[in-house]
Amino acid sequence: MLEQKNAWITSQIVLSSLIVVLSLFTAYISYERSLASSAQLRQNTAALRELMLSTSSETMANANYQFDLSNYSDAELATDDIQKTKYEVRYSEELQNAIAKNIDEPFSDEYFQKIFAESEQHRNEAEILFAAADGYSKRGNALQQIILITTLGLGFVAWTSVIKNERNMIRIVFIAFACMTLVYGVYLLTQVPIVQ
After folding, report:
1. What is the pTM of this model?
2. Is the dihedral of CA 26, 32, 38, 44 positive or negative?
3. Cα–Cα distance for residue pair 24/27, rounded to 1 Å
């Protein structure tokens, strides 16, 4: 009875089935790995674009702040109303609103928040995209580990097919290892992080 069971376990049908299942599973995992890699690249590219836009916006905001500061200082030092008005009309909308709220402290935190708002928005978006790219990277690494394990299983099956004697203990051990790599690969697939 045990011999019949061993003969069935080591039969060509079992070997062929293992090869097909391991190959299809490895191909599926490889496809998922390539999707994760593509998504990581897209997220990184988008994040770098947002970071570039943030830097550009920050540079413009700094220039606007310097322009406001220069005009405000010149208006404060102006000797007559005509000269003062000449500088005041150059104020940015943010500075005009800040003066309307608090004439004694126009360059308040609120002023800086408004003038740097676009830069901050792009920076926050970049951080979200970089976090998503990191998630896809972790997913891809986990999938790559499964590919290595299932490839090892395919190697065991390949060696098993070389051994002609179906009752050979090594053949049984290799089939058992191949089955274990498949089961372990499926288990690892359930542990792969999903990127939201």
Report:
1. 0.75
2. negative
3. 5
Locus of tokens 């099956």: 157
Q: Residues 81-128: pLDDT tens digits?
A: 888 888 888 888 888 888 888 888 888 888 899 999 999 999 999 999
Helical packing angle, 93-101 and 12-77, nearest 10°? 70
Q: How far apart are CA 72 and CA 60, in angstroms?
A: 18
Residue whose entry in the numeric block shows the structure tokens 């058992």: 176
Cβ contact 175:156 at 8 Å? yes
Report the chain's C-alpha Rg in angstroms: 33
What is the tens place of the pLDDT at every residue in 149-160? 999 999 998 888
Q: Where are the domains of the chain?
A: 2-191
